[in-house]
Design a protein that fits this description.
By secondary structure, the chain is mainly β. It has a single domain, classed as Pectate Lyase C-like (3 Solenoid). About 10% of the residues lie in helices and about 35% in strands. The chain has two helices and 28 strands. The strands form four sheets. The protein has a nine-stranded parallel beta sheet with strand order 1-6-9-12-15-18-21-24-26. Strand 4 and strand 5 form a beta hairpin. Helix 1 packs antiparallel against helix 2. The longest helix has 22 residues. The protein is elongated, with a radius of gyration of 19 Å. The N terminus and C terminus are likely disordered.
């Protein structure tokens, strides 16, 4: 019942729930020369700014560097396969303000560097909302990821910053770090994921020191004796990783309505309690580690 309630609440946020007609002309490609293929695609170009003008049943592949792709609040709807935005091999691309729903991966970045993924909504993706692989110096910020199998996955990547995202109700893990070190993860709100985080062969920074702090973890059981909004004890991830200054309160994304956020948080807190109890009686399932 809690999951059903949260799904209904979350549906309010995504434009795909409004029944608007979507363009269905296949994959849209922003070519290396700047052209849009097919020419009939609902993408308005103004110099290096590309703006979606309709919902899309399908994907967008970006092959041009140094551009901004503005989703303009539009939804990219998948068929449980492929990528919403494919950023493979590009540099200095910003993807913002889109809703990515029903893909294998909402955003897939392979060998991609210096990009920014910001202000997007990810839901009902089969694997991860965002997957970075062999990628450096990217920024992932201010995104809402809810009800995906995984939230953000980082494989064989370094120097990335993951900050101020809300990651909730992931079917498996909220943030996964695999053979990825020297990344910075802070200011995120981790709410009711089956496992908030998993780290393999990785050492990363999970806070920005005091008083900025680290991340909010809904399964954190520590206390805040002096009322400064930061837990008195660290949130332990593994022997190489810890959030030294866990936040006691979730940070509300500006685009996320406050009343709706409160309802989501109440439901997620209940789920987090049940998840925490379950984790005390079973070993962690590592089935989310994808093979090479």
């Amino acid at each position: 019942m809690a999951l059903v309630l949260l799904s209904v609440l979350f549906c309010i946020l995504v434009t795909s729930c409004n029944g608007a007609t979507a363009w269905a002309g296949g994959t849209i490609t922003i070519e290396a020369d700047g052209s849009v293929n097919p020419a009939s695609a609902p993408v308005l170009r103004d110099g290096d700014l590309y703006t979606l003008t309709a919902n899309i049943n399908g994907s967008v592949a970006v092959r041009k560097n140094n551009i901004i792709v503005d989703g303009n609040g539009r939804t990219l709807l998948g068929a449980k396969v492929g990528y919403g935005f494919d950023l493979s091999g590009v540099t200095n691309v910003t993807v913002k303000n889109a809703v990515l729903r029903g893909f294998s991966y909402g955003v897939y970045a392979n060998s991609s560097h210096g990009n920014r993924i910001t202000g997007n909504t990810f839901t009902e993706n089969v694997w991860d909302g965002i997957w970075l692989r062999d990628s450096q110096n990217n920024t992932v910020d201010m995104n809402l990821l809810a009800n995906n199998y995984g939230g953000i996955a980082v494989f064989d990547s370094t120097g990335n910053e993951i900050l101020k995202n809300t990651i909730s109700l992931s079917g498996n893990v909220g943030i996964e770090m695999y053979r990825s070190s020297n990344n910075t993860i802070w200011g995120n709100s981790m709410i009711g994921n089956t496992y908030e985080v998993h780290s393999t062969a990785s050492t990363n920074m999970w806070d920005m020191g005091y008083p900025t702090g680290g991340n909010y973890w809904s399964d954190y059981t520590g206390t805040d004796g002096n009322g400064d909004g930061i837990g008195d004890t660290a949130y332990l991830i593994d022997f190489s990783n810890q959030d030294r200054y866990p936040l006691m309160n979730a940070d509300v994304i500006p685009e996320f309505p406050v009343l709706l956020f409160t309802s989501v948080l109440m439901v997620a807190a209940t789920l987090a309690t049940l998840t925490y109890k379950r984790k005390q009686t079973q070993k962690q399932d590592l089935s989310f580690i994808r093979g090479y």
